[in-house]
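Good day; I would like, with your permission, to put a structural problem before you. What I wish to show you is a protein chain and, alongside it, a tokenised description of its three-dimensional fold. Please examine both parts with care and let me know of anything in them that strikes you as inconsistent. Thank you for your consideration; the sequence and its tokens are set out here:

***
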Amino acid sequence: MVENMLEQRFFKYSRKESTRSNVVGMRATYGLTTLTLKDLYPDLTIFSADTSTSAGLDRFKTSHSDSFFDCGISEQCMVAAAAGFVAGGGIALASTFAPFLILRAAEQVRLSLGYMNLPIVITGLASGLSLGYLGYTHCCVEDLPFALSIPNIYVYSPSDAYELKLFLPEIVKQCKPTYIRLTGASKVEPVHKTDITTDFSSPIKISNLGSKLLVLSTGSISSNVVQAINLLPENYSSLLSHYVVPFFDHKNTTDQIAKLASEYDSVFVVDESMYGGLASFTSMALAKNSIFKPLHASTHPHKYLSCGSHDYMLQQCKLDVKSLQETILSILAS
């Protein structure tokens, strides 16, 4: 098994900044952070598909109008235009709602980021079930499986908005073909409440209390996992550890998940995706490294559900706080 020799980065925790970011949510945080990115990378250009307001980009659009291109409701053209800009030596971020980016522009994403290996950073807004009240035309539970199936694409699925604010400049600095998956809504309970150390490939520790059960989660659903664990009786919470998986790097993340899982009796994966997301990725990591552990998962079922609020959709998937608590208790008691 490969040992972790990747460079570690340290980020100082700020409760004030965490609260502020998680109140406004990931989309607004993404847009506001692009202003910082423009100061760091003067050549940075933003491409949008009629989502400047939805992505929190109105300030950037006003402040840097020469570096903002709205391609209208033409996601394929947006990705192709960003690809051409990057091929010419520029730095490009392109964003729109996840289903329109990943599903409608699938060919352009596959060819530009995968086949051509161009270092474009594309961001899927409102991934998962946060727009459930608009139906599955606006939900996207297939984006993580799709992105993970394409060679060369590095995926970043932030656990909360504060993490996104801290990590986005480093994600751009990596200069890789990247899909950023923004899940959840605003006013989400923070996931990170201490300093963060990361190598941008390995899972990040949230709590490490016991070795009976390893809980892995990705995206904003990690907030529900934190709340569910906090509600457990102490004699149960002391038996498990919780790590978030924000990064999906096929060269390193699989080995780091397997290395971590080898230290626990069983593994429980939580994700808003359908088949092919974190659960499948974890299964592949364990199989690749000959790690044989009981693997449990709470994910979106392989069918389309009755649509409604985000909370209602999560309840149907048993991804709400109460259901996650009950599932964890059941696993620990078995």
